[in-house]
């Protein structure tokens, strides 16, 4: 079963050049056993997902203009989607806990996924 996601989880974008770390602003998470846990909040933005370096999406304005890539500035189009594997329903405030393997989508066509939830000791069975 996928582990729950914590502050600093590693993410990758299908069009990004490098991984980045999940940032959890105050109010979007809770502390469990001394670890800051993430929830499937609806307002995902640059405060949570800073950058994947450069973006090679064919719909990125710089790439459409002929460049091989442009600066990555994720524009998230919805909330986190659950992973394909079954997960336990754990609530963090009014939202469901975020699990490894969850994905969200970028306006430029990238699929952003949690590749390492940074969830030492937080797996729920």
Could you tell me the radius of gyration in angstroms?
15 Å
- The helix/strand series, from N terminus to C terminus, equals EEEEEHEEEEE
Helix content: under 10%
Catalogue the unreliable spans: none
User: Which outline best applies?
Assistant: elongated
The average pLDDT value, as a whole number, equals 84
- Order of strands across the main sheet: 2-1-10-9
Which structural category fits the helices and strands? mainly beta
Distance from first to last alpha carbon: 7 Å
Total number of beta strands: 10
Strand content bin: 15-25%
Q: Compute the number of helices.
A: 1
- Biggest sheet, open or closed, and with what strands and sense? 4 strands, antiparallel
Outline the fold blueprint.
Blueprint: E1 10-13, E2 20-21, E3 29-32, E4 35-38, E5 54-55, H1 61-64, E6 70-71, E7 91-92, E8 95-96, E9 103-105, E10 111-116
Antiparallel strand pairs: 1-2, 1-10, 3-4, 5-6, 7-8, 9-10
Structure description:
The longest helix has 4 residues, at 61-64. It is built from one helix and ten strands. The N and C termini lie close together (7 Å). The strands form four sheets. The protein has a four-stranded antiparallel β-sheet with strand order 2-1-10-9, with no helix packed on it. The model has no long low-confidence stretch (mean pLDDT 84). With 125 residues, the protein is mainly beta.
